[in-house]
Amino acid sequence: MNRKKISLILTNAVALLLIFMFTQGLSAQPEQQTKIMLASTIGPIDAGIVGVLEEAFTKKTGIVVEHTGAGTGQALKMAETGKFDLVLVHAKTLEEKFVTDGFGTKRYDLMYNDFIVLGPAADPAGIRGMKDAAAALRKIADAKALFVTRGDKSGTHVKELEVWKKAGVEPQGTWYAVFEQGARGNAPTLAHANEIQAYTIMDRATYITMKPKITLQVLVELDDVLLNYITLIPVNPARFPGIHHKEAMQFVKWLQGRDAQLIIRDFGKDKYGEPLFVPNSPKGKKLRRVSLRRILQ
């Protein structure tokens, strides 16, 4: 065999070896992991329940969930870009519009807690112990007592405006203070209200987690208008075909199932001595030991 043939054979062998190594390298590359993108209201993130639920779901399915926090109004706007697969929000009127406008498919009940009216121990408006939240806000307005609002179209702000509307009051004036950083969430807003010793409406989970750090007190609670329902809405795949709708629905189904609803039912009890949320899916309702009202009384 002459040198030319030997050289050609060696060249072909090297080429085949390189092709084999290249294809093996490609096949050895890990498959790209599916990731669900969640736009979530900030309160449940700050409370820690969102991270706990995401971690449990990933452990069970291998599907990663990545959340971005924003007030409910902003979270829904973010989802309207098609960059998210699912939203976790708590303002029914905004949620229904999101679905009606074709951005979401359907609202799914997940959990609830409630809002409370907090204020300084001195209670200059004299609302302590009132059972009617709207009447309490009317007294605050009449007294022109300092009140802090998030003012950012978040679920908390929407609920606050709902109670003002029921009170027949359009809040305005120097006593009604919009927190400039309200979009950062309930925890910074409550910290600010505490700093200036103002009244505010806040979700109970935020209050419980911050209670050791503040002096504001619960003055009005347990009015049905203050209930805070937290809902899941999958983004509409007909509008955004590129989203991970199948995986998002798998997450929704798991969140509404027994395992997740038990996590929700018991979340916070070990650390705070009381749960922060009440399970509210069809299966979750059967797992409740007592209603929120019974828990709090």
Structure description:
The chain has 297 residues and is of the alpha/beta class. It has two domains: 35-112 and 228-296, 3-Layer(aba) Sandwich (D-Maltodextrin-Binding Protein, domain 2), CATH 3.40.190; 114-226, D-Maltodextrin-Binding Protein, domain 2 (3-Layer(aba) Sandwich), CATH 3.40.190. The chain has 14 helices and ten strands. The strands form two sheets. Strands 1, 2, 3, 4, 7, 8, 9 and 10 form an eight-stranded mixed sheet that branches. The chain has a two-stranded parallel sheet with strand order 5-6. Helix 7 links the parallel strand 5 and strand 6 (176-178). The longest helix has 26 residues, at 3-28. The chain is globular. The N and C termini lie far apart (97 Å). Mean pLDDT is 91; it is low at 25-30.
Give structural attributes.
297 residues; alpha/beta; D-Maltodextrin-Binding Protein, domain 2; 2 domains; 8-stranded mixed sheet; two-stranded parallel sheet; 14 helices; 47% helix; globular
